[in-house]
Amino acid sequence: MAKAPGLKDVAKAAGVSVATISRLLNGSLVLPDETRKRIETAIRDLGYVPNPHARRLSRGRSDMIGLVIPDIANPFFAMLVAAIEEEADKLGLAVSLNATLNRPGREMKYLGLIEHHHVDGLIFVTNHPDDGELAGLINRTGKVVIVDEDVPGAMVPKLFCDNHQGGYLAGKHLAEFGHKKVVFVGGPDEMISTTRRHAGLEQGLRERFGEEAEIKRYRGEYTVTAGRHAARRFLDEKLPATAIFASSDEIAIGLIEVLYSEGVSIPDRVSVVGFDDVGPLHLFTPPLTAVRQPVRAIGARSLSLLLQTDWQQPETLEREELLPVEIVVRSSVAPPAIEKKRRS
Amino acid sequence: MAKAPGLKDVAKAAGVSVATISRLLNGSLVLPDETRKRIETAIRDLGYVPNPHARRLSRGRSDMIGLVIPDIANPFFAMLVAAIEEEADKLGLAVSLNATLNRPGREMKYLGLIEHHHVDGLIFVTNHPDDGELAGLINRTGKVVIVDEDVPGAMVPKLFCDNHQGGYLAGKHLAEFGHKKVVFVGGPDEMISTTRRHAGLEQGLRERFGEEAEIKRYRGEYTVTAGRHAARRFLDEKLPATAIFASSDEIAIGLIEVLYSEGVSIPDRVSVVGFDDVGPLHLFTPPLTAVRQPVRAIGARSLSLLLQTDWQQPETLEREELLPVEIVVRSSVAPPAIEKKRRS
């Protein structure tokens, strides 16, 4: 079997440097038509197929990173992908994006992209509980940065928003308006996004009201459907709180939709605080107060973590980095309805 | 050079069928831990690297398709990607997603994925004008389905929403409320989405008002920023129309944001109709009337076009398929302000 033609052979045939071809192929260079066509002809004539093992830029950096996310239909993930794409583009890196639909089989497969050297590192986002299998594979694979939700037991760099702080800011804001009884609509119980936001909310409320503070926890998923279910439960239970902390944009959308259709006015009857703030919440009726995730910063930092980590020094690897969040105050929080009644 | 190990060698070493490994690798099969580990060990021991040329399911179908889109941060594209992912998953196909950020260099590169057999077909979305170079490369490459916007001169199957019908439905709806003067906020002039929606709008208005109908055309991009610019121009020109047709969700968001902040009430001062309807427009103040794109249908059909087309019969290839749109009537259109004044 003859040796497969390499980048050097193509460069020689086209009369250009290896770096020029490499940059043309990764899209970071636009060449005059005539030069580009000469290179394309050389590639075709030689039957050159880029070899994933050889796909490296100068200074030993890879030109392709992988990005694994659960679901692109969720605007938070879509914005995160866009932020990573933009940052990667600045660095001349291509991104191979893979959606897992939260299927463990797909996650395992995409981790295999590293083992098979099709990408040189992965930014990995999952949001379902792991029985240890995923963590094991990640530890064996290496060159993985875990973003947004934890995979417990994985010994790789991890980057999250400061979920506890986000919950705390929501709780403090609600407490300032006099809300003691709050319904927390979270995602799956095992996820750090849910447990930490819940703990932060509790701290924010207890700082002001101590044992009087009362949090009811609705478990669910980060979806519009789960938001609708939570609203129906809230109505079935005859409004068991004066405020709701909806822990994602998607949950807030489903929740508000049902509250409206049932004539429950926000914030007159119930106050609502959201989380994510990637959708057009400022145009809602009323504009929704929400904790804002630093999506661009998460995108940029996850990429720099992947590129700057010294993967040869496993003992330096495990560390958790938190990016700060802020609360964007709009008009969906008012004093509890019961307070207003007493005053009038 | 020794022959590289193939799927058959792995299957033999692991004591399973080739089909089992193929399905495990493409994520469509979950195996007992013990079996999976045996296969993984065999893959590692043999140093097996999946060969893109050999990556085929039974019946000659590829297991990896490519999807090229301009920008994942635009929710319309994010939803389109999700629709294609979901459909691909049902068929046991993996999707390699690539964002071009509208850079021709990146588009050329991803078309190269087919030439290099890394994917077995591409669903291709672009939204910038082409000087013929892209069309030429697409024609040379084959196995490309063009979706959402045209690449003139490309002789491959094309799938669009019925843009003309969408514009017509918006125009008819506005005309029914008595609007004769309408501002059309479009994307780039050369794009069929803009020219066809504009022509449809004109037909809808002229059917009722003939030569009295007056359309002012604002050129721009399908972005929130362009929507903001359009609103400022509309204000600078002292409200030159009684209604605005904003030809994307993103444009509508930027437009409404500025109109609000300047105290221009919708629909009391100006009526607005949007296009896309993928965002939570039903929660806006007021809920926004919009033409809805059939995103799921576009996703499913673009995949079936790619899989069902007989690529060996070039003469049967070129055809344009349109998917119907509908108008979702909410509360952002009312009779023109001037009419209301006369009546009261």
What oligomeric state is this? homodimer
Low-pLDDT sequence parts of chain A = 51-62
User: Most extensive interface: pair and counts?
Assistant: A-B, 54 and 55 residues
Rg of chain A (C-alpha, Å): 25 Å
Biggest sheet of chain A: strands, sense, closure? 6 strands, parallel
Which descriptors would you attach to this protein?
homodimer; 344 residues; alpha/beta; Rossmann fold; 3 domains; 6-stranded parallel sheet; 6-stranded mixed sheet; 12 helices; 12 strands; elongated
Can you summarize this structure?
The structure is a homodimer of 344-residue chains. Chain A has helices at residues 7-14, 18-25, 33-46, 75-90, 104-115, 133-141, 163-176, 192-209, 224-236, 249-261, 295-308, 337-343; strands at residues 64-69, 94-99, 122-124, 144-147, 158-161, 181-185, 214-218, 243-246, 271-276, 289-292, 320-323, 326-328.
Could you explain the architecture of this structure?
Two copies of one chain form a homodimer. Chain A is an alpha/beta fold and about 350 residues long. Chain A folds into three domains: about 5-50, no CATH class; about 60-160 and about 295-325, 3-Layer(aba) Sandwich (Rossmann fold), CATH 3.40.50; about 165-295 and about 325-344, 3-Layer(aba) Sandwich (Rossmann fold). Chain A contains twelve helices and twelve strands. Chain A has helices at about 5-15, 20-25, 35-45, 75-90, 105-115, 135-140, 165-175, 190-210, 225-235, 250-260, 295-310, 335-344; strands spanning about 65-70, 95-100, 120-125, 145, 160, 180-185, 215-220, 245, 270-275, 290, 320-325, 325-330. In chain A, the strands form two sheets. A six-stranded parallel β-sheet of chain A has the order 2-1-3-4-5-11, with helices on both faces. A six-stranded mixed β-sheet of chain A has the order 7-6-8-9-10-12, sandwiched between helices. In chain A, helix 8 (about 190-210) links the parallel strand 6 (about 180-185) and strand 7 (about 215-220). In chain A, helix 1 packs across helix 3. The first copy, chain A, is elongated. Chain A starts with 6 loop residues before the first helix and ends with a helix. The interface between A and B is large, with 54 and 55 residues.
